[in-house]
Design goal:
This protein has helices spanning about 30-35, 50, 220-225, 250-260, 265-270, 300-310, 355-365, 395-410, and strands at about 5, 65, 75-80, 90, 120-125, 135, 140-145, 150-155, 165-170, 175-185, 195-200, 230-235, 275, 295, 295-300, 320, 325-330, 370-375, 415-420, 425-430, 435-440, 460-465, 465-475, 480-490, 495-500. The chain has about 500 residues and is an alpha+beta fold. The chain has 2 domains: about 45-80 and about 115-185, Immunoglobulin-like (Sandwich), CATH 2.60.40.380; about 195-500, 4-Layer Sandwich (Purple Acid Phosphatase, chain A, domain 2), CATH 3.60.21. Helix 1 runs antiparallel to helix 3 (about 220-225), helix 3 (about 220-225) packs parallel to helix 5 and helix 4 (about 250-260) runs parallel beside helix 6.
Length: about 500
């Protein structure tokens, strides 16, 4: 058989368009039905002018909003040649015997899910009113192949704790209109304001393991919860194991095009902001570190491509405050690490000296009620005996012990870790340091697995199932509550842990 074949192939928040047409609505029931296997048809939100044009530029990969603070955000845009992904392109088998029958890889544009870029112009209009009658407009920006036809608008001067609406407008050189793409996001409350909101955390999404042609079931399930933001916690594409393998920069970009042009992912990204972390598979290869190479693709190129594809700033580790009661830290586990094969000891590191010092300093400086580290890899585990890539493994035990013991001494009762990377869900408590960790699990049931099994010395909860984590912040009188809910792919809560703390 050929290694590939050609085949044809709560409520959703404001989905208004700019043409004055009725606003289509997708209900929670629609989403949950779609998660169970029914087809979900998501409306294209385009203006009358965009409907009339057939020449582009378009925005088949949607928009992404990241790095939101109380007064700033980054809005990611990309211009595409076609209004839709290539749904009729060449598909690859899920499993390929590369030694005896390596796949033939056609030009990237001919592969299923490809979204070739297009040079043109883009601008953003954004405001607090859903009809954008109060909109501020950015300058028109020219985009070219040099940036993969991407531009990231850095917005400032925003109003805290507010809903912002925006439209990304495209044009060609003579300002002939292209497609308009609408979305919304939420700014953070100021540090003196009580924190009362929900957000979600996901990780590990394989393209052939998405379990629905329109995208992983976790996306409609998360969106139905109306989160303020979603954390994309690494392994968002699999360069090294999902065919065609990314051995060139062009093939690496294909992985992002086909994943993030899926209707369910586009809907999620246009209705909430996101914070992005990378791990090994979406940088280069499994358990990779700086200096490595996969075919023609270098680790450094993988770093650059991630910076293009994710709406983030230049610094890969950073912290964000969401009101009085929550501060979140995002750490990077790839840019500064020692090679895995180096013997363990004081000099072997995942975080690097600068990031580690920043983490300790900023955690000590924070007066947030709850402090939360979201890490692409585990700090507690336990992990499998044959793994040697994270702080719960023996290969990085020295730094892992250092961090856990520091947390025990400095933030013993209001600090939690949420991790990606592992394909099973758990709530673990380290038996000596007491560090608490929640593993969010893989993004689909078919991608779940790999656990070493339940360990009663660590686990308060353990299951091998796809899903995600939702976190609720609640304030009642002088009590702040944080609630961690490990949910399955359909959003059903399988485990809940609540913690309360007095606030002044």
């Amino acid at each position: 058989m050929s290694p590939h074949s050609r085949i044809a192939t709560g409520k959703l928040v404001d989905r208004g368009n700019l043409s004055g047409l009725p606003i289509p609505v997708v209900t929670r029931r629609d989403f949950l039905a779609a998660s169970a296997g029914a087809a979900l048809v998501l409306p294209q939100i385009v203006s009358a002018e965009a409907i009339a044009t057939d020449s582009g530029p378009f925005q088949a990969t949607g928009t992404r909003v990241g790095e939101v603070t109380e007064n700033s955000a980054i809005v990611w845009t990309r211009l595409t040649k076609h209004s839709q992904r290539n749904n009729d392109g060449v598909e690859f088998a899920k499993k390929v015997d590369r030694k005896s029958d390596p796949p033939t890889v056609p030009p990237v544009a001919q592969i299923e899910g490809a979204c070739p870029g297009m040079a043109g112009r883009v601008r953003l209009r954004y405001g607090l009113k859903s009809d954008l009658s109060d909109a501020t407009a950015t300058d028109w920006i020219d985009v070219t192949e040099a940036t993969d036809f991407i531009h990231q608008f850095k917005l400032s001067g925003l109003k805290p704790d507010s809903t912002y609406h925006y439209v990304s407008q495209t044009a060609v050189g003579d300002n002939s209109p292209g497609q308009e793409f609408r979305g919304k996001f939420f700014t953070a409350p100021i540090p003196t304001m009580p924190s009362s909101f929900r957000f979600c955390v996901m990780t590990c999404q394989g393209y052939p393991d998405r379990d629905h042609k329109d995208g992983h079931p976790i996306y409609p399930s998360m969106l139905a919860l109306e989160p303020k933001f979603v954390t994309m916690t690494g392994d968002l594409v699999y360069y090294d194991s999902n065919e065609p393998r990314a051995v060139t920069p062009a093939l690496a970009r294909l992985h992002w095009e086909r994943m993030f042009s899926l209707p369910r992912l586009v809907a999620m990204m246009r209705n909430a902001s996101s914070y992005w972390l990378k791990d090994d598979h979406d940088t280069l290869t499994n358990d990779s570190w700086p200096g490595m190479k996969a075919g023609e693709l270098t680790f450094a190129e993988g770093q650059t491509i991630f910076q293009q594809q994710a709406p983030i700033g230049k610094q890969s580790y950073r912290t964000f405050r969401w009101g009085h009661d929550l501060q979140i830290w995002f750490t990077d586990g790839r840019d500064f690490r020692s090679p895995n094969k180096v013997p363990d000891g004081p000099e072997k590191t995942i975080w690097g000296a600068e990031q580690k010092a920043w983490f300790k300093r900023t955690v000590q400086e924070s007066d947030a009620t709850w402090k939360l580290l979201i890490s692409p890899t585990p700090l507690v585990g336990p992990d499998r005996q044959n793994k040697n890539d994270n702080h719960s493994n023996i290969g990085f035990a020295h730094e892992g012990d250092e961090i856990r013991e520091w947390l025990k001494a400095n933030v013993p009762d209001n600090f939690f870790v949420v991790c990606g990377d592992r394909h099973w869900q758990y709530h673990s408590v380290h038996p000596t340091a007491g560090t608490q960790e929640f593993s969010v699990g893989a993004a689909s049931n078919s991608h779940a697995g790999g656990t070493p099994g339940e360990d009663k010395t660590y686990h308060r909860f353990h299951r091998v199932k796809g899903g995600f984590l939702s976190v609720d912040l609640r304030r009642e009188g002088q009590q702040s509550q944080i609630v961690f809910q490990l949910r399955d792919v359909n959003g059903v809560v399988g485990y809940e842990a609540k913690f309360n703390r007095a606030v002044s």
